[in-house]
Structures are given as C-alpha cells and as structure tokens.
C-alpha cells in the first residue's frame, strides 16, 4: 500500500544514498569527481548542477539526516 509514510521513507533513503556517495572512490570513476564540476566561464551544465546538488545535500543535510534516521528507526520499531 502506498502511503505518506512510504513516500517519506523513500525520500529519506534517497537522501541517505546521496550523502554516502564518495567523490574520490565512486564518482571519480564515472568522471564526476571534484575536478569535473569546475568551470570558469559560461553557464553551468546539467552535470555541474547535479554535482553541486550532491555537494549541497551532503553539506546541509548530514546532521538533520542523523536525527531523521533515528526517528524513522524508532517509528519502525514501535509501529512495525
């Protein structure tokens, strides 16, 4: 059954996945490392924007995700 909790949980899992991506070990293999997103002139490409989004999520959402994960675990333990 698709519920609001399922949507929240899937969003939480996707944010966790983005936060654990490692630039040197995983993203650099596909050409998405730290150096790939540095462009001095012109409009940023879609690849640059995705890299900036990944870096921003890792920077901003790291601490709140810890608390959201704890809440989700407690919720799952109490309500199944």
From TrEMBL:
The keyword Transmembrane helix applies. Residues 1-17 form the signal peptide. GO terms for cellular component: COPII-coated ER to Golgi transport vesicle; endoplasmic reticulum membrane; Golgi membrane. The chain crosses the membrane at residues 60-79. Keywords: Membrane, Protein transport, Signal, Transmembrane, Transmembrane helix, Transport. It comes from the Eukaryota. It is found in: Membrane. InterPro entries: Yos1. One of its GO terms (biological process) is protein transport. Belongs to the YOS1 family. Regulator of endoplasmic reticulum secretion that acts as a key determinant of brain size. Required for secretion of extracellular matrix proteins. Required for correct brain development by depositing sufficient extracellular matrix proteins for tissue integrity and the proliferation of neural progenitors. Acts as a regulator of the unfolded protein response (UPR). This is Immediate early response 3-interacting protein 1. The lineage of its organism: Eukaryota, Metazoa, Ecdysozoa, Arthropoda, Hexapoda. The gene is LOC108050440.
